[in-house]
Each structure stands twice: as structure tokens, then as C-alpha cells.
Amino acid sequence: MAARTTNNRRPNRLRNRAVIGGVAAGAVAGAGWRGRALTLPGALAAWLTGAVVTSAGWNHAAAMLAFVLSGSALSQLQGEHGPALTAIWEKGGRRDAAQVAANGGVAVITALLHLARPGPLPAAAYMGALAASSADTWATEIGVRSAAAPRRITDGRPILAGMSGGVTALGLAGSIAGAAFLAGVAVCTLARSRPSSRLRQFVGLCLAGIGGSLVDSLLGATVQASRRCPVCQVATERRIHQCGASTHRTRGYAWVQNDAVNVAATVVGALLAVVWQWRLGEPRTRQGDAVRSVSYATGNNSIDATVITA
Question: Which of 224, 290, 234, 233 is nearest to 257 (CA)?
Fold first, then answer.
């Protein structure tokens, strides 16, 4: 009877989290739209993302909220990007639906996997994807303020500030800080985990985030489309330069834009976190008379990890 009661509570808790998540995500997305951080389609995508990840668990919601708020805070602290950067970047300062999906789409998929089959690997993939997004966001927001010229990650040659594929010491420090911040938030939400387990999870998520950010730079320097304005004679990622001239592709594939690179980086972050979690071993189990309660190293909610045994 106790097992059935516990099992029946799960749909109610999922529904409650979905409702609360939908309301909270709507408020955050609305604030982003009013503050001109998001376009209207971007705000709708952000609302849907928030509702889904909150349904997966409060730890999922906390990590996503930390990522969104930290990125917004960095943008506000750094102020408006100068005209030199806006002339390079493919899109403006307001995030559209494609950008929201590129940074949060993998996290949404892994959250849905966690809903369908709760376990340490989907949870690790979710946190790893967010760690990569956080590391890349922090690297960009902090790195563009570097006084030193960025250098292409593949050959070390100086490139124009703001172009994809460039790295600076300040940007690398930002990447490490962004990954560590998200990893710290993630391990703080772990349930019933020993300090040694939390430390291993923290290290793994840091490595996943930094690895995803470095892959972002590597792809940006190799396969992402780079263009040049024939009128202004400057490098850019825009198809139409600010002067109105059509740009010519000088490197990479035309279909590989910054959004595609961001998706690839989050996939790498998720995979690295899964490999790290898998290397940590199987989850610990406690066998009861009628209920088996699984205590995952990733700190899943106990209600999500409780199943009826034969």
C-alpha cells in the first residue's frame, strides 16, 4: 500500500512542478522580453524551456535559472557591446528562439529523458549541457573585454576581436569560472550525497563545461562560416554587413552558423558529463520490503527514483 501511495504521488508532483515552472518561466521570459534581452519568439521558447526543465526536478530548474540569471547579469554589467562587435556577430543583442534552442535545446531533451527514465546519466547529461553553455557564455561576455588580441585556437594567429574561434587568457578564465559556477550550483542541489561524491561531480561538470566551450572555439575556427565584406574589407559573420553589402564566405561551411556550433558544444558537454558519471559507477541501492529506493550520485528527487518491486 505504501509503495502504491508513493508511486501515485509522482504524477501529482510532476504536475505541480510543471505548473509552478510554467508560471515562473513565464515571469522570467516576460522580464527578458520587456528588458529587450529576448525577442518575442525567444521569450516563448524560454518559457517552454523553463516549464519542461522544472517538470524534471527542482535541481534542474535551479541550474537553468542560475545559467540564465548569470548570463543576463554579465551582459548588464558589461554594458552594450560596441559597434565593432555588432558589425561582426551574426545576430544582435536580443536572443531569438533559435539562440534559446541552441543553448537550451540539449538540456530540454535530456530533461525529457530524465522524466521518462529517471537516473544519473540523463541528469548528468543535463548538467553537462548547461555547464558547457555557461562556460561559453561567460567566456564570450568576459573575453570580449580583453585588452589582448584574441588568437585563433588552431594556429595561434591573431584575429579580430569578436570573431568565432579566437581565445584570450581572460576568455579562458571566464570559461573556467562559468563552468565552475554552474557546477557549484548543480552539486549544491544534490540530495543525500557525500562530500566526496559532490567533489567528484563538481570536477566532472567543470571538465564537461570547459571541454564544451573549447569545442565551441575549435568549431568556430574551422567549420563555422566566416565572411568578409567586399566594401569595408573587414571580417564578419553576417551575410549582410552593416553597410548593406552582401558578404563573401572565406572559410567554413555556409550552413554552419553560431547556433549550430552552440548546439554541438552542449552535446559535447552532455557527453563528457555522462562519461564521467558512468566512470563513477552504478547508483547505490537500498532494498526494502515493497519499495526499492535508488540513491543516485546526481541527487535525483527520491520520489522520482522510487519504484515498486516484485
Answer: 224
Helices and strands counted in the chain (H then E): 9, 8
What's the grid cell of residue 260? 549550430
Please choose, from the candidates 219, 260, 278, 277, the residue with its C-alpha nearest in 3D space to the C-alpha of residue 106. 260
Distance CA 168, CA 171 (A): 5
The answer to whether 11 and 55 have CB atoms below 8 angstroms apart is no
pTM over 0.90: no
**What are 277-297's pLDDT values in tens digits?**
998 764 443 333 333 333 333
Q: Which residues contact 301 (CB under 8 A, 6 or more apart)?
A: 13, 57, 58, 59, 191
Which residues pair with residue 240 across a beta bridge? 246
Grouping H, G, I as helix, E, B as strand and the rest as coil, residue 307 is strand
Looking at residue 232, the DSSP 8-state letter turns out to be: T
Sequence letter at residue 5 = T
Answer whether 66's CB lies under 8 Å from 181's CB.
yes
30, 76, 142 from 35: Cα distances, Å: 8, 11, 21
Set of cell numbers at residue 282: 552504478
Spatial distance between the Cα atoms of 220 and 114, rounded to a whole number of angstroms? 31
User: Residue 88 and residue 21: Cα distance in Å, rounded?
Assistant: 36
206-236 pLDDT, tens per residue? Answer: 999 999 999 999 999 999 988 888 888 888 8
